[in-house]
């Protein structure tokens, strides 16, 4: 049924880079057999899942939407993919994204533009735009995306679906092709909070293959959903409603805050004074780490290799010049610059200090409040092409999401209605490893 739907919707939406129909149908058959034999079923037995194309899948092309990995077939599965398969989930395909997850509109894909299912002339957000669009257009009930600075929440908001960015360390990054390792985290996208909580149960947990994975008792997130939110304290940071944020969106979120009050929560305005430095801090750290992580794509070990070269240097240069797109090259250059001697202290080191201050800002709020409430995106989904020539205006799309990645916190984006027939997303931020709180509040609100 899902492949029938995909056939119908893909023509317009273009959410997938690769479809794995044959394998998926084989897995579905296995589930059928299990059912008829009365065997024990996995937690997500028979449920189709779409996977962002920067999460490696054994024997299935994993491109990062880049020419440099255009024909790359990984020899192993990411831990999250193994977990899904072990619980009976069925991988139906790999979704489109901004190249190496760098972008906010999925327009940086080497292969195609994914369209926003609510208005095909608009972007689905990014970088997990394919995953969000696939869920929104009913091509998949569940999808995985990745977050470095908002890439699950912002497309969830643009496409009217739910998206979770888990606490750094909750979900294994093994097999997630690295963009900025201290920020990257795999997240879930679904049609509602319950589906996302369910998926988080499947993919979370300690993994000794990821040295940043945290070893702690696994929680069952479904258990917390139906608890009420009476007495919950929610902070509304004034910086998240200020300049650059669409007034109609701000108003919609304030209305939603009143809905939380009706559910028994208390709402108070607070200040997160370092917010204004979050975006520059993010773009320094993310580009620095990216410049280092992407050094492995050299045309020698795997992936694309340029045809013409006369020595090893030319091989590197031609391969990387031809293999990477504009935005990826821009970031490698920015990152290399800020890590270079003489500039390191002024840029990278300073950004790390600012990151520490941001974390203190958040810690202070979480001493008094359970959650932070804000818009997910400062604007409604913009038109395809509207920002693609202006990187800084594209970077502004992340202004309300990057702090969560810089501080390692968890957050969720939940739909909260429409403006001009376009979906609006509300963001709930929780302290590290407080997923149950954001899920509980989002579920009560939904
Ligand atoms: N849009 C942000 C960027 O371009 C975030 C990307 C992400 O979260 N992967 O860096």
From TrEMBL:
<comment type="subunit">
    <text>Heterotrimer of A, B and C subunits.</text>
</comment>
<dbReference type="InterPro" id="IPR023631">
    <property type="entry name" value="Amidase_dom"/>
</dbReference>
<feature type="active site" description="Acyl-ester intermediate">
    <location>
        <position position="151"/>
    </location>
</feature>
<dbReference type="GO" id="GO:0050567">
    <property type="term" value="F:glutaminyl-tRNA synthase (glutamine-hydrolyzing) activity"/>
</dbReference>
<keyword id="KW-0808">Transferase</keyword>
<dbReference type="GO" id="GO:0016740">
    <property type="term" value="F:transferase activity"/>
</dbReference>
<feature type="active site" description="Charge relay system">
    <location>
        <position position="52"/>
    </location>
</feature>
<feature type="active site" description="Charge relay system">
    <location>
        <position position="127"/>
    </location>
</feature>
<comment type="similarity">
    <text>Belongs to the amidase family. GatA subfamily.</text>
</comment>
<keyword id="KW-0648">Protein biosynthesis</keyword>
<keyword id="KW-0067">ATP-binding</keyword>
<dbReference type="InterPro" id="IPR004412">
    <property type="entry name" value="GatA"/>
</dbReference>
<dbReference type="GO" id="GO:0005524">
    <property type="term" value="F:ATP binding"/>
</dbReference>
<dbReference type="InterPro" id="IPR020556">
    <property type="entry name" value="Amidase_CS"/>
</dbReference>
<dbReference type="InterPro" id="IPR000120">
    <property type="entry name" value="Amidase"/>
</dbReference>
<keyword id="KW-0547">Nucleotide-binding</keyword>
<comment type="function">
    <text>Allows the formation of correctly charged Gln-tRNA(Gln) through the transamidation of misacylated Glu-tRNA(Gln) in organisms which lack glutaminyl-tRNA synthetase. The reaction takes place in the presence of glutamine and ATP through an activated gamma-phospho-Glu-tRNA(Gln).</text>
</comment>
<dbReference type="InterPro" id="IPR036928">
    <property type="entry name" value="AS_sf"/>
</dbReference>
<dbReference type="Pfam" id="PF01425">
    <property type="entry name" value="Amidase"/>
</dbReference>
<keyword id="KW-0436">Ligase</keyword>
<feature type="domain" description="Amidase">
    <location>
        <begin position="1"/>
        <end position="439"/>
    </location>
</feature>
<dbReference type="GO" id="GO:0006412">
    <property type="term" value="P:translation"/>
</dbReference>
<dbReference type="GO" id="GO:0030956">
    <property type="term" value="C:glutamyl-tRNA(Gln) amidotransferase complex"/>
</dbReference>
<protein>
    <recommendedName>
        <fullName>Glutamyl-tRNA(Gln) amidotransferase subunit A</fullName>
        <ecNumber>6.3.5.7</ecNumber>
    </recommendedName>
</protein>
């Amino acid at each position: 049924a899902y492949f029938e739907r995909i056939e119908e919707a893909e023509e317009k939406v273009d959410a997938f880079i690769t479809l794995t129909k044959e394998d998926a149908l084989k897995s579905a058959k296995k589930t059928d057999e299990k059912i008829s034999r009365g065997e024990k079923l996995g937690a997500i037995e028979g449920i189709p899942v779409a996977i962002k194309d920067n999460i490696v899948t054994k024997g299935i092309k994993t491109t990062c939407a880049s020419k440099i990995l255009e024909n790359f077939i990984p020899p192993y599965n990411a831990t999250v993919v193994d977990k899904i398969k072990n619980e009976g989930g069925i991988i139906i395909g790999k979704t489109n994204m901004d190249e190496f997850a760098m972008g906010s509109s999925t327009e940086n894909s080497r292969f195609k533009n994914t369209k926003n299912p609510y208005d095909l002339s608009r972007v689905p957000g990014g970088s997990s735009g394919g995953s969000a669009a696939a869920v929104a257009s009913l091509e998949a009930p569940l999808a995985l995306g990745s977050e470095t600075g908002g890439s699950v929440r912002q497309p969830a908001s643009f496409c009217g679906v739910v998206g979770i960015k888990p606490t750094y360390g909750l979900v294994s990054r093994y097999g997630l092709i690295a963009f900025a390792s201290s920020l990257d985290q795999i997240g879930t996208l679904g049609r509602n909070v319950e589906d996302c909580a369910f998926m988080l149960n499947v993919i979370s947990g300690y993994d000794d293959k990821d040295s940043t994975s945290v070893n702690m008792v696994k929680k069952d997130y479904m258990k917390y959903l139906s608890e009420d939110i009476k007495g919950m304290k929610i902070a509304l940071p004034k910086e998240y409603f200020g300049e650059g944020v669409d007034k109609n969106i701000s108003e919609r979120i304030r209305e939603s805050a009143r809905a939380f009050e009706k559910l028994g929560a208390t709402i108070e305005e607070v200040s997160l004074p370092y917010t204004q430095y979050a975006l520059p801090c993010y773009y320094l750290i993310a580009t620095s780490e990216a410049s280092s992580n992407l050094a492995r794509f050299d045309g020698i070990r795997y992936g694309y290799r340029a045809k013409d070269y006369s020595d090893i240097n030319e091989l590197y240069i031609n391969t990387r010049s031809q293999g990477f797109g504009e935005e990826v090259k821009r970031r490698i250059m920015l990152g290399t610059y800020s890590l270079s001697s003489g500039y390191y202290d002024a840029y990278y080191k300073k950004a790390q200090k600012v990151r520490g201050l941001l974390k203190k800002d958040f810690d202070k709020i979480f001493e008094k409040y359970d959650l932070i409430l804000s818009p997910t995106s400062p604007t409604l989904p913009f038109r395809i092409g509207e920002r693609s020539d202006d990187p800084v205006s594209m970077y502004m799309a992340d202004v309300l999401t990057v702090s969560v990645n810089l501080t390692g916190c968890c957050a969720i984006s939940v739909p909260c209605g429409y403006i001009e027939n376009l979906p609006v997303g509300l963001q709930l931020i929780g302290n590290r490893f407080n997923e149950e709180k954001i899920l509980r509040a989002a579920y009560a609100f939904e």
